[in-house]
Automatic annotation (TrEMBL), chain A:
Keywords: Oxidoreductase, Thiamine pyrophosphate. InterPro entries: THDP-binding, Transketo_C/PFOR_II, Transketolase-like_Pyr-bd, Transketolase_C. Pfam families: Transket_pyr, Transketolase_C. Residues 4-179 form the Transketolase-like pyrimidine-binding domain. It comes from Oceanobacillus arenosus. SMART domains: Transket_pyr. Its cofactor is thiamine diphosphate. CDD domains: TPP_PYR_E1-PDHc-beta_like. One of its GO terms (molecular function) is oxidoreductase activity. SUPFAM superfamilies: Thiamin diphosphate-binding fold (THDP-binding), TK C-terminal domain-like. This is Alpha-ketoacid dehydrogenase subunit beta. It comes from the Bacteria.
From TrEMBL, chain B:
Its EC number is 1.2.4.1. The pyruvate dehydrogenase complex catalyzes the overall conversion of pyruvate to acetyl-CoA and CO(2). It contains multiple copies of three enzymatic components: pyruvate dehydrogenase (E1), dihydrolipoamide acetyltransferase (E2) and lipoamide dehydrogenase (E3). GO terms for biological process: branched-chain amino acid catabolic process. Keywords: Coiled coil, Oxidoreductase, Pyruvate, Thiamine pyrophosphate. Residues 303-330 form a coiled coil. It holds the Pfam family E1_dh. SUPFAM superfamilies: Thiamin diphosphate-binding fold (THDP-binding). This is Pyruvate dehydrogenase E1 component subunit alpha. Heterodimer of an alpha and a beta chain.
Length: 325, 360
């Protein structure tokens, strides 16, 4: 076991898969010699060579096409989009092409591609770096969307994503890259995609979160414990497809639910969770399901992040509103 | 500065071997094709012309769905395809179904693709090709990837892709060529310039005098070729293939061609934007007429042979349509089954729902 940050765990997962499968290729802008703008691919080119880990021209759409073409030649591409705000440049490759390759060929071809991209607020990035755009891809049939919140899970989920024979968008929250360390096994292991994790058991209210909001929700739960409110926190880990069974089981137990996302209210995936809960658990609900989200504005100028991003205090308030409904 | 632009444009003179009368105007570049090859090329062009005529008729009868006419582009489509090998990978646009057929896609599957049936995309394993791409330009970036894959595998093969004149305005057109250039990948990019993107004339796409010169932006070789001259198209493609396989990187080929029919059969009316004069001017350039004259001059082609091909095509098409009719009706459960290797939980649930519905 080693103490790793999330970024180290991600590097470790890619190293593991590069070693494990000679068809794995890692490429993108500055991922080679430079080791990535966040050091996610640090040392990989040196260890595996330029044939396996390489830089590309600065063009996201080209990177997406490259991944699809390499997949058609039997490779297992792990391309990087430097920041997920740049996904619009490659939206066709991701949501118009790789996601439907298996479908369009009647199951005769597939795209085992893992698109890695950082996102997420709280680190004062310039424009179009931090936007939460997982909702766009979560609406797209044929592609999975994975968002880890801890180093341990990042490694296991990334290995699973790379081994998946269908495309996965793997979103890495920038604020979580180096915010804490945890024990991560050096050997390989996988975490099943599409499975949520109960991060804190509780009996009074279910909080469903993902990404950085998992940690804010856990902090809110700790605070509310002092006030006698016992919060269960579910980390979705995969936001498409969602592990609704875990969510519903929890809501059936607690009778209260709050869904927490960093994305704007009209974006993200919180509305999906609310809809599923009302379809499947309405008779267990003692209050409406409320959402903690950002405001429906464009992602803020960096100095306004502190007032704009959902905080653990926002979560505390929504939980109280639901419990005291 | 005007002479600077001119000096660039002068690098892209139209490459031609046969003139409109089937006369060889460029002996030096005459490709090395046997008499049998020459006859086979003619056979394919005639067959494809019949296929176009029948496809239009079948579409009008409602027995085909989406169809983009190909008449006029036989030299461009089949001359380029004839220069390829079985191990080459094809990334066609939506008008490039003939290349797929001659690569080995069974005719009835091409018809099923037109109708909108999943079996139309289930290509035989030995047909190295993707389905016709509807998103204009996407096939170019994907071709760069396939070509890089071929290079990494150390195969003696190329990735070949086709788009139209309008498609050269897309970002993916530039990105695809530029990526292939930067990776020195074995790709052949073909821009079939038929003068119109639906109703928009080629002059409204760009001020560039040729489309071939767009290769300069990627630092790759560009060739403009008479796209109604099957020997010139073949020779240019062959040249590009040899370069690619020798590790010299990609080539852009612009074929100057024309489509006699509408853009697609989905309600396009070309009389709104094309004059009779323009049509008749291009009809004189018909690739079949000049190649027929060329072959007749060499005593390699006769009316009887042509009639035989026409009859063969008609009978194949009849059989293929019958076979397409026999394809099973598509069910939602089929479609669910093609989404993932392992169904996620939402689709598992929906599969059960539709199974129940379908068994009623």
């Amino acid at each position: 076991m080693a103490q790793m940050t999330m970024i180290q765990a991600i590097t470790d997962a890619m190293r593991n898969e590069l070693k494990n499968d000679e068809n794995v290729l890692v490429f993108g802008e500055d991922v080679g010699q430079n080791g990535g703008v966040f050091r996610a691919t640090e040392g990989l080119q040196k260890e595996f060579g330029e044939d396996r880990v390489f830089d590309t021209p600065l063009a996201e759409s080209g990177i997406g096409g490259l991944a699809i073409g390499l997949a058609l030649e039997g490779y297992r591409p792990v391309p990087e989009i430097q920041f997920f705000g740049f996904v619009f440049e490659v939206m066709d490759s991701v949501a118009g092409q790789m996601n439907r390759l298996r479908f369009r060929t009647g199951g005769t071809k597939n795209a085992p591609i893992t698109v890695r991209a950082p996102f997420g607020g709280g680190v004062h990035t310039p424009e179009m770096h931090s936007d939460s755009l997982e909702g766009l891809i979560a609406q797209t049939p044929g592609i999975k969307v994975v968002i880890p919140s801890t180093p341990y899970e990042a490694k296991g989920l990334l290995i699973s994503s790379i081994r998946d024979n269908d495309p996965v968008v793997f979103l890495e929250h920038m604020k979580l890259y180096r915010s804490f360390r945890e024990e991560v096994p050096e050997e390989e292991y996988t975490i099943e995609l599409g499975k949520a994790a109960v991060k804190r058991e509780g009996k009074d209210v279910t909080v469903v979160a993902y990404g950085a909001m998992v940690h804010s929700s856990l902090k809110a739960a700790e605070e509310l414990e002092k006030e006698g409110i016992d919060v269960e926190v579910i980390d979705l880990r995969t936001v498409s497809p969602v592990d609704y069974d875990t969510v519903i089981e929890s809501v059936n137990k607690t009778g209260h639910a709050v869904v927490v996302q960093e994305a704007q209210r009209q974006a993200g995936i919180a509305a999906n969770i609310v809809a599923e809960i009302q379809e499947r658990a309405i008779l267990h609900l003692e209050a409406p399901v409320l959402r903690v989200t950002a405001a429906d504005t464009v992602y803020p100028f960096s100095e306004a992040e502190d007032v704009w991003l959902p905080s653990h205090q926002d979560i505390v308030e929504k939980i109280k509103a639901v419990v005291n409904f | 500065m005007k002479h600077v632009l001119e000096s660039v444009e002068n690098q892209f003179e139209t490459f031609q071997i046969l003139d409109e009368n089937g006369k060889v105007v460029n002996k030096a570049d005459m490709p090395d094709l046997s008499d049998e090859d020459l006859k086979e090329l003619m056979r394919r062009m005639v067959y494809t012309r019949v296929l176009d005529q029948r496809s239009i008729a079948l579409n009008r009868q409602g027995r085909l769905g989406f169809y983009a006419p190909t008449a006029g582009q036989e030299a461009s489509q089949l001359g380029s395809h004839f220069a390829l090998e079985k191990e080459d990978f094809l990334l066609p646009g939506y008008r490039d179904v003939p290349q797929l057929i001659w690569q080995g896609l069974p005719l009835h599957q091409a018809f099923l693709w037109s109708r909108g049936h999943y079996a139309g995309g289930q290509f035989p394993e030995d047909v190295r090709a993707l389905f016709p791409q509807i998103i204009i330009g996407a096939q170019f970036v994907q071709a760069a990837g396939v070509a890089l894959g071929i290079k990494k595998r150390g195969k003696q093969a190329v990735a070949v892709t086709w788009t139209g004149d309008g498609g050269t305005s897309q970002g993916d057109f530039y990105e695809g060529m530029n990526f292939a250039g930067a990776f020195k990948a074995p790709a052949i990019f073909i821009a079939q310039n038929n003068g119109f993107a639906i109703s928009v004339p080629r002059e409204k796409q760009t001020s560039a005098k040729t489309l071939a010169q767009k290769a300069i932006a990627a630092g790759i070789e560009g060739i403009q070729v008479d796209g109604m001259d099957v020997l010139a198209v073949y020779a240019a493609t062959k040249h590009a293939r040899v370069r690619a396989i020798n590790g010299e990187g990609p080539t852009l080929i612009e074929t100057l061609t024309y489509r006699y029919g509408p853009h697609t059969m989905s309600g396009d009316d070309p009389t709104r934007y094309r004059s009779d004069e323009l049509n008749s001017e291009w009809e004189k350039k018909d690739p079949l007429i000049r190649f027929r004259k060329f072959l007749e001059g060499k005593k390699l082609w006769s009316e009887e042979e042509e009639t035989k091909v026409i009859e063969e095509a008609k009978s194949d098409i009849k059989e293929a349509i019958k076979k397409a009719d026999q394809a099973p009706k598509q069910k939602v459960t089929d479609l669910i089954g093609f989404m993932y290797e392992e169904l996620p939980v939402n689709l598992q649930t929906q599969l059960e729902e539709y199974q129940a519905k379908e068994s009623k």
